[in-house]
C-alpha cells in the first residue's frame, strides 16, 4: 500500500480544524509524507531527513529579514521536505510574501494555518496514520501479526529492529499503550502460560498500569508500565504480581526497570527478559524450585549467567568448562566418585553471603549437615570459602558449572540455547 500523501494528511480532522489554506505547491499534494514534525526555529531544516511535513508557529520568522526567510524555504526544499505549515494570526499576522513567493518558485507545498490547534494533536493524528499505513502495507510481507499493533511493535523491539522514538511512540499509541508520568517499564517473558490472562491479572494486581502484550510461538511477551504509586522495587513488585497471577508450572522472566522515555531502553528490557527466560528454561536453578506455583525470576537474578553466556553458549562452552575444571576440579572428581551435592551447596552458600542459616534453609538440611559439607569442600579445594579474595572466582566457577551442565542437557532434549 502506498505511503500516506500530503493530500491525505490535510484531510485529517485535527488538520482540517486548523483551517489550512494552500498558498503554494498545488501540484505536489500527492507526494508521500514520511513524518510530521513541529519546530519553533527557522533552522528546522537542519533536522530533516526528507519527506517530512514541518509545522511552525512562525516565531522564528517574525524578526527575520526577507533573505533569511527565503533561505529558510530554500533549505526546506533542498532537504526534501514534503511541505511547510505555518500558523498565522498570533506571532505572525500573515504569511510573509517572500515565503510564499519562494515556495511557489520551488514548488514546495506551503500551508497557512488560520486557527490555533495544538501541534501535538496534529502530529499525533498524522503520525499514527502514517504508522498504521506503513504497518498495513508490510504486514503480509514482513510480520505474521496481522493487525495486532502490540505484537508487531513488541516483535520489532525484542528483535532489535532499527526504529526511532517518534515511530515507537506513535505505534505504542496505536496499540493503546500510554505509560503514565513517572511509570517504570519492565519487559516480561512467559513460557507455559495459556494466552495473556496471566499478564492481565498481574497488571490488575499492580494497579492497572498500561501494558503491551502478545502471544508468540513458544512464549508470551509483554511490556508493563508499573505506576509511580506502586512503592518500592518495581522488579520485585512485578515478580510478586506474577507469582500470584501465572499458572502453576509456568516460567516467568522479568527484565530490568526503565523509564518511559527512550525506545532503546524498551528494547533492552524486553531482550533481557527473553534472554533470561531462555536461561531459566535451559539452566538448572541454583536453589531448589518451589514445588507448586510458577517459577519467577529476573534478569538481575541471572545476571552472572547472562554475562557468562554473552555471545552464545556454544561460543563460551569450552572456556567455561576449562574455568570450572581449573577452579573446582578436586570437587568435581569427588562428586563423580561419591554422590553428593557439594558444588550446589557451595554456590548457594556464596550467593547468600555465606550465611549458614539461610543456606541450610534453602537446601532443606540441618546446620550440622551444612557444616560437614563446607568442611569437605574446604578440605578438597585447600582453601577457606569465606576468603574475600576467593568469593568471586568460586561463585563464577560454580555458576559456570551449572550453565555448562544445563545447556548440555537442553541440547540433548532439543531445546534452544541463548544466542
Question: Main attributes?
Answer:
Arc Repressor Mutant, subunit A; PucR_C-HTH_dom; 5-stranded mixed beta sheet; alpha/beta; 3 domains; CdaR-like_regulators; 419 residues
Give the N-terminus to C-terminus distance in angstroms: 35 Å
Which strand order spans the largest sheet, edge to edge or round the barrel? Answer: 1-5-4-3-2
**Record field, number of beta strands:** 10
Mean pLDDT, all residues = 85
Q: How can the largest sheet be summarized?
A: 5 strands, mixed
Low-confidence stretches: 137-146, 408-419
Structural class computed from helices and strand pairing = alpha/beta
Number of helices: 17
Measured as a percent range, the helix fraction is: 40-55%
Overall spatial form: elongated
Number of domains: 3
Name the beta content range. Answer: 5-15%
Protein name: PucR family transcriptional regulator
Domain Purine catabolism PurC-like: 8-130
InterPro entries: CdaR-like_regulators, PucR_C-HTH_dom, PucR_C-HTH_sf, PucR_dom
Domain PucR C-terminal helix-turn-helix: 342-394
Amino acid at each position: 500500500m502506498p505511503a500516506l500523501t500530503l493530500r491525505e494528511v490535510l484531510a485529517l480532522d485535527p488538520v482540517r480544524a486548523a483551517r489550512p489554506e494552500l498558498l503554494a505547491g498545488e501540484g505536489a499534494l500527492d507526494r508521500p509524507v514520511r513524518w510530521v514534525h513541529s519546530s519553533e526555529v527557522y533552522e528546522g531544516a537542519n533536522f530533516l531527513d526528507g519527506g517530512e511535513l514541518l509545522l511552525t508557529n512562525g516565531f522564528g520568522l517574525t524578526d527575520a529579514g526577507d533573505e533569511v526567510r527565503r533561505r529558510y524555504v530554500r533549505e526546506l526544499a533542498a532537504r526534501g521536505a514534503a511541505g511547510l505549515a505555518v500558523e498565522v494570526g498570533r506571532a505572525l499576522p500573515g504569511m510573509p510574501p517572500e515565503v510564499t513567493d519562494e515556495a511557489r518558485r520551488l514548488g514546495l507545498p506551503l500551508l497557512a494555518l488560520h486557527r490555533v490547534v495544538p501541534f501535538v494533536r496534529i502530529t499525533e493524528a498524522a503520525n499514527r496514520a502514517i504508522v498504521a499505513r506503513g504497518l498495513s502495507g508490510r504486514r503480509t510481507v514482513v510480520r505474521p501479526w496481522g493487525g495486532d499493533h502490540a505484537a508487531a511493535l513488541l516483535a520489532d523491539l525484542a528483535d532489535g529492529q532499527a526504529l526511532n522514538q517518534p515511530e515507537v511512540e506513535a505505534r505504542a499509541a496505536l496499540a493503546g499503550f500510554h505509560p503514565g508520568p513517572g511509570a517504570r517499564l519492565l519487559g516480561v517473558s512467559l513460557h507455559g502460560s495459556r494466552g495473556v490472562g496471566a499478564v492481565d491479572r498481574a497488571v490488575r494486581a499492580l494497579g492497572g498500569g498500561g501494558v503491551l502484550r502478545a502471544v508468540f510461538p513458544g512464549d508470551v511477551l509483554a511490556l508493563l508500565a508499573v505506576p509511580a504509586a506502586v512503592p518500592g522495587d518495581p522488579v520485585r513488585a512485578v515478580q510478586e504480581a506474577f507469582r500470584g497471577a501465572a499458572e502453576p508450572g509456568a516460567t516467568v522472566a522479568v527484565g530490568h526497570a526503565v523509564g518511559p522515555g527512550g525506545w532503546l531502553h524498551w528494547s533492552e528490557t524486553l531482550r533481557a527478559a527473553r534472554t533470561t527466560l531462555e536461561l531459566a528454561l535451559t539452566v538448572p536453578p541454583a536453589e531448589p524450585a518451589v514445588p507448586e506455583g510458577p517459577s519467577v525470576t529476573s534478569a538481575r537474578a541471572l545476571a552472572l549467567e547472562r554475562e557468562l553466556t554473552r555471545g552464545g553458549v556454544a561460543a563460551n562452552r569450552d572456556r567455561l568448562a576449562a574455568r570450572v575444571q581449573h577452579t573446582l576440579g578436586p570437587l568435581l572428581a569427588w562428586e563423580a566418585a561419591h554422590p553428593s551435592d557439594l558444588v550446589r551447596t557451595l554456590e548457594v552458600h556464596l550467593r547468600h553471603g555465606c550465611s549458614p542459616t539461610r543456606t541450610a534453609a534453602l537446601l532443606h538440611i540441618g546446620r550440622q549437615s551444612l557444616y560437614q559439607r563446607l568442611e569437605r569442600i574446604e578440605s578438597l579445594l585447600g582453601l577457606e570459602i569465606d576468603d574475600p579474595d576467593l568469593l568471586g572466582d568460586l561463585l563464577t566457577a560454580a555458576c559456570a558449572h551449572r550453565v555448562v551442565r544445563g545447556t548440555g542437557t537442553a541440547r540433548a532434549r532439543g531445546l534452544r540455547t541463548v544466542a
